[in-house]
Specification:
Shape: globular
Mean pLDDT: 91
Strand content: under 5%
Structural class: mainly alpha
Number of strands: 0
Largest sheet: none
Distance between the termini: 78 Å
Radius of gyration: 19 Å
Length: 219
């Protein structure tokens, strides 16, 4: 087929109902990242729940069609982990378990995918999920995973923030401040402005809390 004619046809094909053009795994990861950032940071209430429900379906379909992609598995796990946090309560446990399964599957393919994001998310899951006999929470594993994420991505905004969050929750405020400041200094990610803005707001709030605790303890 003539290349010029094909280029003219592409916009028409995209408008045809039921037609979905194949996307690369990088494009799918980018779409999941952006949709998650909107659901997580820009929506609340019922709108957020509905956005996450649609995103969960999208993430599962992406894995079904690209089961060998570590990056897609990581994002499947991140989305399910985040939704577990939004949902809360015992009803969130099934999503937390599904998130762990996807993240562990990604590690078997490439544990450095997306700068070790699987380790950071697993660490957060193990730190926040209740322990036995209710759930699989485990502080020792949480620290191991969070520190592995830092080993892979020592300057990253997420790896530093998640470890700081663990330290803050365990009342090690001095160490938490150190890692929050490092997260705050992380270079912006040009392809993730919404996520960066939301994360920096979380960092600022955590820093204010940590510094308040440190001030009270020294007075």
């Amino acid at each position: 087929m003539n290349i010029r004619l094909l280029k003219k046809m592409i916009p028409l094909i995209m408008l045809m109902p039921g037609v979905v053009l194949a996307q690369s795994t990088d494009e799918i990861v980018s779409r999941l990242q952006k949709d998650w950032a909107i659901a997580n940071y820009e929506l609340t209430g019922d709108a957020q729940i509905k956005a996450y429900e649609a995103l969960l379906e999208d993430a599962d379909a992406a894995v079904a069609n690209n089961s060998g992609s570590a990056g897609i598995l990581v994002w499947n796990g991140i989305i399910k982990s985040a939704f577990a946090g939004v949902k809360g309560g015992l009803g969130a446990l099934s999503y937390a378990k599904a998130a762990r399964k996807s993240l562990e599957a990604s590690l078997e393919i490439d544990d450095h995918a997306l700068n070790g994001s699987a380790y950071a998310t697993l660490g957060t899951l193990y730190s926040k999920v209740p322990g036995w006999p209710v759930g699989f929470g485990n502080d020792k594993k949480a620290v191991q995973f969070l520190q592995k994420a830092l080993e892979i991505n020592p300057e990253g905004i997420d790896s530093n923030y998640f470890y700081a969050d663990y330290l803050r929750e365990n009342k090690d405020y001095e160490s938490a401040e150190k890692y929050l400041l490092k997260a705050q200094e992380a270079a912006p990610r040009a392809d993730r402005p919404v996520a960066d803005t939301g994360r920096r707001q979380e960092i600022s709030a955590a820093l204010a809390e940590v510094r308040g605790k440190l001030k009270r303890s020294s007075s």
